[in-house]
Model the fold of this input.
Amino acid sequence: SSGINAEYGGRHGVVMCSTVILCILYYLAFISFPFDAATATTTRATDKPIIPSNLYLTLAMGVLLGLGDGGFNVSIYANLSTVFEHKPAPAFAVFKFVQSL
Done:
C-alpha cells in the first residue's frame, strides 16, 4: 500500500514541478518580448521588453523548456505503462501519433 501511495505522489510531484517550471518559462518569454511583437516586425517594434533578450536568458529558457517538457513526457509514459499493462504497444503508438500532430 505504501508503494502505491509513493508512486502516486511521485507522479503528481513531477507534474507539479514541470508545471511550475513551464509557468516560469512562459513568464520569462512574455517579459522578454516587446508588447507589440505580434503586430509589428521586430525592426519596427516601438515598445521595449521588460527584460532585454540576451544569450544567457535564451539558454536558461531552453533548459527550462527541456526540463518541463521532459517531466511531462516521463509522467505520460509512466501513466500509459500503468494503465495499459497488457498491451502497451498500441497505447504508445497512439500517443506518439497524437504527439506528432
Summary: The radius of gyration is 19 Å. The chain is about 70% helix and 0% strand.
